[in-house]
C-alpha cells in the first residue's frame, strides 16, 4: 500500500487541506487587521497591543497541547498500565506507517477520545475510562484510527491555533481599550467613540472566527471518519462506536457534560445532551450524516471486495 497523507497510509483529503489553509488565511488576516486598527486608534497603547499579541501567540503555539491535555484531565500511561489501549495504538500506527504518539487516559465516565499536539513528535491520543469500559476492541480501534487521522492530517494543530486567534483578538481588543482609555482619560469624544467601536470590533472578530472554526471542525470530523474507515476497512465498527458513544452521552450527568463541553471541538463526539440552536454553531456534523457516510463507504468497500 502506498503512502498517501504526509508520509502515512491515511487517505488524503484535498478538501480538508483547502479548508485548513483558507481558515488560517482568513483568521490570520482578521487578526492582523484588528491589531493594525488598534495600533492606529490607540497610539499610546500600541506597545502593549503588540507585546501581548506576540507573547500570547507564542505561548499558545508552544503550550496549547499541554493546556488542552490538562483541561481534559489526560494522564499519560505506559503499556503496563493500559496494555489494550497501547496494543490498539501500536497496531494502527503500524497499519498507517506513522510514528506512535503518546498515549493517555482521562479518568471520567464520559465516553470519548481526543488527540492533541502541534506536530507528530509531540502528539498525544487520549481515551477516557468511560470509553474503554463501553467499547469492543474493533470499535475502540475505529475511534483511535479517527483520532490518529487528526494527527496525520495535522488538523489538530490548525484547529488549536485557529480557535486561539479569535479569542486572542478579543483579548487584545479589550486590553487595547483599557490602555487607550487610560491614555485619553476623561469622558471626551475620543473616549466615547472607543467605548462603542472597540467592543463592537471584538464582537465581530469573535463571531467570524467562531463560524470559521466551526465550519472547519465539522468537515474535519467527516474527513477523520472517512480516513479511519478506509484504513481499518471496518466502517461498521466505527459506526457502531459512534452510535454507542452518542447514546451513552445522553445518560451522563449534566454536570460532567458541562465540564467537557468547552473542549467539544477536540472530542470524538460532542459532549452535549441537547441540540444546539443552529447547525452553524455545532462543532460536529449530525450523527445521521456521519453514519450515512460510513454506510456509503461500507457499500463501496463491499463492491470492491
UniProtKB/TrEMBL annotation:
Annotated positions binding Zn(2+): 146, 150, 221
Cofactor(s) demanded: Zn(2+)
Alphabetic keyword roster: Cell membrane, Hydrolase, Membrane, Metal-binding, Metalloprotease, Protease, Transmembrane, Transmembrane helix, Zinc
EC number annotated for this UniProt entry: 3.4.24.-
Superkingdom of this protein's organism: Bacteria
Biological process (GO), any one: proteolysis
This protein's record includes keyword Ribonucleoprotein: no
Active site (UniProt): 147
Chain segments annotated as transmembrane: 21-39, 45-63, 156-180, 192-212
Gene3D superfamilies listed in its UniProt record: Metalloproteases ('zincins'), catalytic domain
Free-text remark on how the cofactor is bound: Binds 1 zinc ion per subunit.
Subcellular location: Cell membrane
Leading EC class: hydrolase
GO molecular function, one term: zinc ion binding
InterPro entries tied to this protein: HtpX_protease, Pept_M48_protease_HtpX, Peptidase_M48
GO cellular component, one term: plasma membrane
Family per similarity comment: Belongs to the peptidase M48B family.
PANTHER family according to UniProt: PROTEASE HTPX, PROTEASE HTPX HOMOLOG
Alphabetized HAMAP family for the sequence: Pept_M48_protease_HtpX (MF_00188)
Protein's UniProt name: Protease HtpX homolog
Highest classification ranks of the organism: Bacteria, Bacillati, Actinomycetota, Actinomycetes, Kitasatosporales
Amino acid at each position: 500500500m502506498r503512502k498517501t497523507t504526509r508520509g502515512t497510509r491515511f487517505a488524503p483529503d484535498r478538501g480538508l487541506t483547502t479548508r485548513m489553509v483558507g481558515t488560517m488565511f482568513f483568521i490570520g488576516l482578521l487578526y492582523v487587521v484588528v491589531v493594525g486598527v488598534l495600533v492606529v486608534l490607540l497610539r499610546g497603547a500600541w506597545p502593549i497591543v503588540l507585546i501581548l499579541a506576540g507573547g500570547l501567540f507564542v505561548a499558545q503555539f508552544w503550550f496549547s497541547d499541554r493546556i488542552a491535555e490538562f483541561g481534559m484531565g489526560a494522564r499519560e500511561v505506559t503499556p503496563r498500565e493500559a496494555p489494550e489501549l497501547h496494543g490498539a495504538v501500536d497496531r494502527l500506527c503500524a497499519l498507517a506507517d506513522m510514528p506512535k504518539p503518546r498515549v493517555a487516559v482521562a479518568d471520567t465516565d464520559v465516553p470519548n477520545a481526543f488527540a492533541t499536539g502541534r506536530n507528530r513528535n509531540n502528539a498525544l491520543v487520549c481515551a477516557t475510562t468511560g470509553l474503554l469500559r463501553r467499547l469492543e476492541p474493533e470499535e475502540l480501534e475505529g475511534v483511535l484510527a479517527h483520532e490518529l487521522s487528526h494527527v496525520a492530517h495535522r488538523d489538530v494543530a490548525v484547529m488549536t491555533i485557529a480557535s486561539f486567534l479569535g479569542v486572542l483578538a478579543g483579548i487584545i481588543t479589550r486590553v487595547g481599550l483599557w490602555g487607550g482609555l487610560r491614555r485619553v482619560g476623561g469622558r471626551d469624544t475620543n473616549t466615547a467613540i472607543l467605548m462603542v467601536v472597540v467592543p463592537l470590533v471584538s464582537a465581530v472578530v469573535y463571531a467570524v472566527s467562531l463560524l470559521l472554526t466551526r465550519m472547519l471542525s465539522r468537515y474535519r470530523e467527516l474527513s477523520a471518519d472517512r480516513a479511519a474507515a478506509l484504513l481499518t476497512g471496518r466502517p461498521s465498527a466505527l459506526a457502531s462506536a459512534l452510535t454507542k458513544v452518542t447514546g451513552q452521552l445522553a445518560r451522563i450527568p449534566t454536570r460532567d457534560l458541562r465540564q467537557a463541553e468547552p473542549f467539544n471541538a477536540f472530542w470524538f463526539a460532542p459532549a452535549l445532551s441537547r441540540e444546539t440552536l443552529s447547525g452553524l454553531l455545532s462543532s460536529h456534523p449530525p450523527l445521521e450524516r456521519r453514519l450515512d457516510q460510513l454506510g456509503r463507504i461500507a457499500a463501496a468497500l463491499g463492491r470492491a471486495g
